[in-house]
Amino acid sequence: MKIKLGFGTTEQEVELPQKNILNILTPNQGEYGLTGEEEVKRALEHPIGSPRLREIVKPGEKIAIVTSDITRPMPSWTVMPPLLDELYAAGVKPEDITLIFALGSHRTHTEEEKKKLAGERAYAEIRCEDSDPLDCIHLGRTIHGTPVDITRRVAKADRRICLGNIEYHYFAGYSGGAKAIMPGVSTRDAIQANHSNVLVVGLFLALQERRPVQIAVVLVLLILLQEGVGTLDFGASVLWYFLAIVLFFAGRWMFETENWLFVLLLSGCLGAAHGAVIWLMTRLQYIPLETAGLVDESILQALLTPVLWQACRLARRWVVSHENNTA
Predict the structure, then answer these.
(1) Is 36-186 in CATH node 3.40.50.200?
(2) d(Cα 167, Cα 242) in Å, to the nearest integer?
(3) Which member of 46, 109, 144, 169 is catalytic?
(4) 195 given a catalytic annotation
(5) Cβ atoms within 10 Å, residue 72
(6) Cβ atoms of residues 86 and 53 within 8 Å
(7) Catalytically annotated residue among 46, 106, 195, 322
(8) What is the C-alpha to C-alpha distance for residues 93 and 112, in angstroms, rounded to an integer?
(9) Tens-digit pLDDT profile for the chain (327 aa)?
């Protein structure tokens, strides 16, 4: 059977043996009224629990519209015309409006990509630019110590309008909303604050106990977790855990895994590997990188790993002992 799959802006056709196909799942056909620009216009005219946008913004105010980058299926080109009409109706001038593509930790866009995302009209009428992780305003820290760094043009705007698609997210529940600001228009340091790759300790415990099924499950969960919360994208996560496993088995070849020298040497190597993975991925995606922050992260990785490893080992022993006593 031949099956066509969407791939980028085109389709790819694959041929599968009929015996390998149990069934093909297709989405249900839901009922809906208006679509496209007409639905956006209706939503702007009848907001839920809020005055109309034209009643909120004022002439002379600087407006920052934050939308998704090219990695997300957000049809900004459909939303922008009705949104601009609403802003113009309030007396806002085109020169006071900026459309900002929230990059997070992704690469910058080409001008053609910006034009495609914004749509012909918005691209011609207003300023369209990428968020800049190197030009941010530091607004403070959260109670958890996470730096609040926001792209200058967004932070300085009088009004911020965040666009985004609402879709299922396996950790956040549903994507959209505040994610346009964090991680959308923040810095890499803010995105990864308090998220050094200490989760690797769980993988090491599974490797020490030599349980293949447990190793596979933990590995998949860790990769999905880090990709889901935004601390490492999928490619970087796969590379990171591959290096961790290689380093573990290389060390085990020379030392007993219970040996503290093994733990300390492996932790130091992991610190260096953390820096190497982040450096490589940022270079491949043409993302600016603050070297000082990366060095700090690598040192933190090396220092935290042995402490957390020992804590997890003790916790694991207590759980096993408790289970044996209650059996």
Answers:
(1) no
(2) 30
(3) 169
(4) no
(5) 20
(6) yes
(7) 106
(8) 25
(9) 888 888 877 889 999 898 888 888 888 888 878 889 999 999 999 999 999 999 999 999 999 999 988 888 889 999 999 999 999 999 999 999 999 999 887 788 999 999 999 999 999 999 999 998 888 888 887 765 677 889 999 999 999 999 988 777 655 566 667 778 887 888 876 766 544 455 677 777 777 777 777 777 777 776 666 665 555 566 777 777 788 888 888 877 777 766 777 778 878 887 888 778 777 876 776 666 667 667 777 787 778 777 777 777 777 777 767 666 665
| Residues 124, 69: Cα–Cα separation, whole Å | 18
288, 210, 278, 211: which is closest to 243 by C-alpha? 278
**Closest to 9 (Cα-Cα) out of 165, 96, 117:** 117
Q: Where are the alpha helices (DSSP H) in the chain?
A: 36-45, 53-56, 76-89, 111-118, 120-125, 152-156, 188-192, 200-209, 212-229, 234-252, 260-284, 291-326
With 0-12 / 13-18 / 19 or more C-beta atoms within 10 angstroms meaning exposed / middle / buried, residue 266 is buried
Active site residue 109: no
Tokens of 117: 């995302």
Residue with tokens 């969960």: 221
Q: What is the CA radius of gyration of the chain?
A: 24
Please report, as a single letter, which amino acid is at residue 72: R
Question: Is the Cα torsion angle 55, 58, 64, 70 positive or negative in sign?
Answer: positive
Where are the CATH 3.40.50.11440 domain residues in the chain?
Answer: 36-186
What is the DSSP-derived secondary structure letter of residue 327?
-
- Tell me the C-alpha distance between 44 and 83, whole Å: 8
pTM of the model: 0.63
Beta carbons of 83 and 161 less than 8 angstroms apart: yes
Residues 105-115, buried b or exposed e (16+ Cβ, 10 A)? bbbbbeeeebb
